[in-house]
Amino acid sequence: MQPVQLGPKPLTRDDVHAVARGGAPVEITEAAREAVTTARSHIERLATAEQPTYGVSTGFGALAVRHIPPDRRAALQQSLVRSHAAGAGPEVEREVVRALVLLRLKTLTSGHTGIRLETAEAMAAMLNAGITPVVHEFGSLGCSGDLAPLSAAALALTGEGDVRDARGDLVPAAQALAAAGIQPVRLAEKEGLALINGTDGMLGMLVLALRDLNHLLDVADLTAAMSVEALLGTDRVFAADLHALRPHPGQGRSARRMAAILRDSEIMESHRGPDCTRVQDAYSLRCSPQVHGAARDTVAYAETVADRELASSIDNPVVLADGRVESNGNFHGAPIAYVLDFLAIPTADVASIAERRTDRMLDVNRSHGLPPFLAHDPGVDSGHMIAQYTQAAIVSELKRLAVPASVDSIPSSAMQEDHVSMGWSAARKLRQSVDGLRRVLAIELLTAARALDLRRPLKPSPVTAAAVAKLREHVEGPGPDRHLAPEIAAAEDLIRSGCPEMSGRPELLGAL
Question: Catalytic: 54?
Answer without folding.
Answer: yes
